[in-house]
Amino acid sequence: MMSLGRxxxxxxxGASHAPEVGAVVEGVPAQFPVxxxxxxxxxxxxxxxxxRLGTQRHEADRLVVDSGIDGGRATGAAIRLHVANTDARSxxxxxxxxxxxxxxxxxxxxxxxxxxxxxxxxGIFSGRMTVGLVAAGAIASGLLAPIGVEVVGFARSVGGETxxxxxxxxxxxxxxxxxxxxxxxPDPPVADRMERLIAEVRRQGDSVGGTVExxxxxxxxxxxxxxxxxxxxxxxHLAFSVPAVKGVEFGAGFAASRMSGSEHNDPYEIxxxxxxxxxxxxxxxxxxxADGADLVARFAVKPTSSIAKEQATVDLVRMKPARIVxxxxxDPCIVPRAVPVLEAIVAIALADLAMVGGYLG
Length: 361
Ligand SMILES: Cc1cc2nc3c(=O)[nH]c(=O)nc-3n(C[C@H](O)[C@H](O)[C@H](O)COP(=O)(O)O)c2cc1C
Known about the structure:
Layout: E1 3-4, E2 9-14, E3 20-26, H1 36-46, E4 64-67, E5 69-70, E6 73-74, E7 79-84, H2 91-94, H3 106-113, H4 130-144, E8 150-158, E9 161-162, H5 171-178, H6 188-203, E10 210-217, H7 231-239, E11 245-250, H8 261-264, E12 268-271, E13 274-277, E14 285-286, E15 289-290, E16 295-301, E17 311-315, E18 320-324, H9 335-356
Antiparallel strand pairs: 1-2, 2-3, 3-7, 4-7, 5-6, 8-9, 8-10, 10-16, 11-16, 12-13, 14-15, 17-18
Helix pairs in contact: 1-4, 1-9, 4-9, 7-9
The structure holds flavin mononucleotide (FMN).
């Protein structure tokens, strides 16, 4: 399915080498101000890194608003947004159409959709599909701002290089530090090492994975729906729709399985007359509902599958072993570009839950 959400509903459309990619966003109330410049700024953050670290496919990603916004306000109808695909090179993919790339979606997609399906550039399995998510996420952030909810994402690790980022850091400082380097990491010495690592794996014709952390501050205590629409469920559903995401954890996450209850429980205290949590192992969610601490989600991003090193595959026509050197232009590390995408999906999840719970409008 290409749509998700109950009240704030997002549909993505297009494909890697189709004329355009984008999103249809439903549920934004009529007259709500929509900052088109903020949507473009979010898209600019998703674009490829510089020549040393990024893919050589360069798309301008100029936002076009087709409908649903007039004079900076939502009309109440569905908002349709797209960007053109201008730098597609489908011939790169003609050569490998019968030899599926290991680690990409080529093989199961061919079995499912047939040999004639348009899978150039990854088709609907391409990272290009996240353009629509980022645009929708910027609208979601705009909806959350008036109720005091802010979302920020950053690169937490690349390979073995892990950033140290204080849990109390102001979001403005986090953003400023993150935007000071190409990898989107708010710990400058570690960012430097991440950049060098990415450049090195690229030189070796290989790729590297990592993690993205997204924090959300200001969630009303109790927000989230019980059981199937818990905050964790909705965020995880959206996160696993993002290509290359292989894991999600909240707060202490998998480390919780190695902790005792007395270590893991977040004690309550009264701070400035309000109930607060002294630690945040739960990642801001208890029983699927916001507990008043920051929502802290971390996403595992796999190493890019399309690498320059020769790999074993099969020829699906001859049914014989084959070797493949993947052509085309690829990111040696998806983490930096996944930062705005995963920030967007958390904003989308929270905007939908805020609407369903009656916290917005
Ligand atoms: C922003 C972004 C950029 C991506 N760029 C590439 C790329 O350049 N090359 C590649 O092989 N995969 C890239 N991917 C990942 C693939 O689309 C993904 O691995 C593939 O569709 C298989 O899906 P899966 O990894 O979720 O199983 C990118 C993903 C994202 C989110």
